[in-house]
Amino acid sequence: MTQTEQLQHVNLKGRDLLELDDYSTEEIQYLLDLAIELKRKQKNGEVYQPLKGKTIGLIFEKSSTRTRVSFEVGAFQLGAHALFLSKNDIQLGRGEIISDTAQVLSRYLDGIMIRTFGHNNVVDLAKYATVPVINGLSDLAHPCQVLADYQTILEHKGKLKGLKLAYIGDGNNMAHSLMIGGAKLGVHVSVASPEGYEPDAEVVKASREIAKETGAQIVVTRSPQEAVKDADVIYTDVWASMGFEEEQKIREAAFKDYQVDEELAKGAKSDYLFMHCLPAHRGEEVSEGVIDGKNSVIFDQAENRLHAQKALMAALMG
Ligand code: CP
Ligand code: NVA
């Protein structure tokens, strides 16, 4: 059986996406293939509207450019309608409880995406909602971004298994989802973070457990040089994520040796990809030369948010 035939029986209808560990390797591969197929259709001008007449609510407790626009545009292209629900403009911001919000919204909507601080909010929403719930970023995880990221790597490198991804910087939501996704897909992930900013120990343990199945190696180190050695991909993210802005100064000091610059990148393979989920701070976590250089694929990643989020909505809500 070819991989495409194997993936044909995958059915994700009605499922939530809280983090990629909810999904099997095969299910993630299915979503990546579907994203690539939907991208092809879009580029060819083919109209594909499996979600005609459906609605998705997008709850935002934090700012967003890519996530909001990719879900809104993606829903429109699939024939669905998206509602932007800023937390402060709905009763959730005035103390209406998550379980009531989830049950009420489920009576109107066919899917809910939520961007929030505490991951427990996503879990609670999913527990009480009767429609699929998608994590559009929590303090713990950012699976939507990572689907687009592995799609981007697959498109540029033609494969995923056996590649090495080096993540330099804060052991945050991005680091976590890249590790879980890498472990599922057989991508070796090396994370280099300063003391006190390592990825969550539970996530590292879970990733290593998953990696046993695929042969991926999950490494956590202090040394950016060790992490980038022979890497196919160098990935970084801001030093102060949303909600941590007041720690900016302390973090600038803690992360000063963790900038991805031309010197550090020399340790990677010459055809390495530079990746960043964006928004970026040039001159902090990455030098201008690297982020705007020839190895950078940041705008392919940003574009793929659209295709990956369409695949997710089509698969879960279709
Ligand atoms: N990468 C990402 O999620 O971007 P936004 O915060 O703009 O949605
Ligand atoms: N780690 C960043 C990602 C932004 C897309 C944050 O949580 O702010």
Automatic annotation (TrEMBL):
Residue intervals of the Aspartate/ornithine carbamoyltransferase Asp/Orn-binding domain? 161-315
Substrates-to-products reaction catalysed: carbamoyl phosphate + L-ornithine = L-citrulline + phosphate + H(+)
Q: Which residues bind carbamoyl phosphate?
A: 64-67, 91, 115, 142-145, 277-278, 305
Does the keyword section mention Transit peptide? no
Q: Which InterPro entries match?
A: Asp/Orn_carbamoyltranf_P-bd (IPR006132), Asp/Orn_carbamoylTrfase (IPR006130), Asp/Orn_carbamoylTrfase_sf (IPR036901), Asp_carbamoyltransf_Asp/Orn-bd (IPR006131), Orn/put_carbamltrans (IPR002292), OTCase_ArgI (IPR024904)
UniProt pathway annotation: Amino-acid biosynthesis; L-arginine biosynthesis; L-arginine from L-ornithine and carbamoyl phosphate: step 1/3
Annotated residues for binding of L-ornithine: 173, 237, 241-242
- Known EC number: 2.1.3.3
Q: What top-level class of enzyme does the UniProt entry assign?
A: transferase
Domain of life assignment:
Bacteria
Q: What keywords is this UniProt entry annotated with?
A: Cytoplasm, Transferase
**Span of domain Aspartate/ornithine carbamoyltransferase carbamoyl-P binding:** 15-155
**UniProt subcellular location:** Cytoplasm
Name the Pfam families on file.
OTCace (PF00185), OTCace_N (PF02729)
| PANTHER family, A to Z | ORNITHINE CARBAMOYLTRANSFERASE, MITOCHONDRIAL, ORNITHINE TRANSCARBAMYLASE, MITOCHONDRIAL
Q: Which family does it belong to?
A: Belongs to the aspartate/ornithine carbamoyltransferase superfamily. OTCase family.
What does it do?
A: Reversibly catalyzes the transfer of the carbamoyl group from carbamoyl phosphate (CP) to the N(epsilon) atom of ornithine (ORN) to produce L-citrulline.
Protein name listed in UniProt: Ornithine carbamoyltransferase
Q: Which organism is it from?
A: Paenibacillus cookii
- Cite the source lineage: Bacteria, Bacillati, Bacillota, Bacilli, Bacillales
